[in-house]
Write a structure and sequence with these properties.
The protein is of the alpha+beta class and 268 residues long. The chain contains eight helices and seven strands; from the N terminus they run E-E-E-E-H-E-E-E-H-H-H-H-H-H-H. The chain folds into two domains: 127 residues, no CATH class; 115 residues, no CATH class. It has a five-stranded antiparallel beta sheet with strand order 2-3-4-1-7. Strands 5-6 form a two-stranded antiparallel ribbon.
Length: 268
C-alpha cells in the first residue's frame, strides 16, 4: 500500500554518529510554496548543537518526475541559506555523482531520520542554533528574484573559495539586485568617500563606479585596460590588496538587501 509521503533526506557532513541518531529531532518546519504542486513541507533536522539533515516531504500523489526538480531547488536554496545563517563551513555529504540523497516512505508528515553515516571528528558544533532565523531567511528568499542572490552570497563567504572568486560572486549578486546600471552607479557612489569608503581601500584613485568593472575583469582572470595583471591563484585568498575591497562590497550588497527586502544578513 502506498504511503502518503516520500521524505527526501539531504544530509550534511560529517554525519550523525551511531550513538546519537536517536537525538536527531525536528528543529524547524517550513512551507515551500510552489506554483504547480501546492505547498511542500521542509524539515530542518538536527541535534542540540548541529544541523544534520534537510528533509523535503513530498506527497506521493505528486508525479515522481517532479520530485527531483523540487529536491534540487529546495536543497540548493537551503544549503545556501545555512551558509549565511548557520555557519559558512556547512557542507553536504557527497558521492562521486553529486549530493548524497536518500529517501523514506511514510504516512507520518514529519520524517524519522535513522541513517548513520561515516563520522568525522571535524563537524561543526554551534552553541545556539537560531532555527527560526534560518527558516525565516529561507522562506523569505525562496523566490526567483532572491534565490540566485542567496546562492551567490553563500559562495562569497565559503572558506574554500579564493578571494577573487568571492568578489566575482558579490559583484554578480549586486548586478542582479540592481540591474539598471545608472541605479547601480548611484548606489556605489554612496560608498566612495568616507572613513570606510572605496578611497580608504587605496586600491586605486578612480571613482568606485569606474573601478569596479576593472576589478571584476581582473578577478575573472582577465587583464584590465591599464594592463594590470589578473588575480590568479589561491594566495589571493589572503591578499591585503583585495580584502578591503571585498569587505566594502559585502557592506554595499548587504545594505541594499536590507533596504529592499528588509533582511538582516551578515557576510563578514
Amino acid at each position: 500500500m502506498t504511503k502518503k509521503y516520500f521524505h527526501h533526506f539531504l544530509p550534511f557532513t560529517p554525519g550523525v554518529p551511531e550513538g546519537e541518531v536517536g537525538d536527531v529531532r525536528c528543529l524547524q518546519e517550513m512551507i515551500y510554496e510552489t506554483e504547480t504542486d501546492g505547498p511542500l513541507t521542509v524539515h530542518l533536522l538536527g541535534r542540540k548543537q548541529s544541523v544534520d539533515v534537510v528533509a523535503v516531504s513530498i506527497p506521493t500523489a505528486i508525479d515522481d518526475e517532479k520530485h527531483l526538480n523540487w529536491i534540487q531547488k529546495i536543497g540548493n536554496h537551503m544549503f545556501a541559506t545555512l551558509r549565511l545563517t548557520y555557519t559558512p563551513f556547512v557542507d553536504i555529504c557527497r558521492t562521486t555523482n553529486g549530493f548524497l540523497n536518500m529517501g523514506q516512505e511514510s504516512d507520518k508528515a514529519c520524517p524519522d531520520y535513522e541513517v548513520i553515516l561515516i563520522h568525522s571528528p571535524h563537524g561543526q558544533s554551534i552553541e545556539n542554533i537560531d532555527a527560526a532565523n534560518i527558516a525565516a531567511v529561507f522562506c523569505q528568499t525562496a523566490n526567483k528574484e532572491m534565490t540566485p542572490i542567496i546562492a551567490l552570497l553563500a559562495e562569497a563567504i565559503s572558506p574554500w573559495i579564493p578571494m577573487h572568486y568571492k568578489i566575482l560572486s558579490i559583484v554578480r549578486a549586486l548586478e542582479i539586485l540592481i540591474p539598471k546600471e545608472n541605479e547601480r552607479f548611484s548606489w556605489l557612489d554612496r560608498y566612495h568617500d568616507g572613513e570606510n569608503g572605496y578611497q580608504s581601500t587605496k586600491f586605486n584613485s578612480q571613482l568606485f563606479r569606474n573601478a569596479l568593472p576593472a576589478i571584476r575583469t581582473r578577478c575573472a582572470h582577465g587583464g584590465s585596460r591599464g594592463k594590470e595583471a589578473p588575480f590568479v591563484g589561491q594566495a589571493y585568498a589572503d591578499s591585503s590588496e583585495l580584502h578591503p575591497v571585498y569587505s566594502l562590497l559585502c557592506r554595499v550588497l548587504v545594505d541594499k538587501i536590507r533596504q529592499v527586502h528588509k533582511l538582516d544578513i551578515r557576510l563578514n
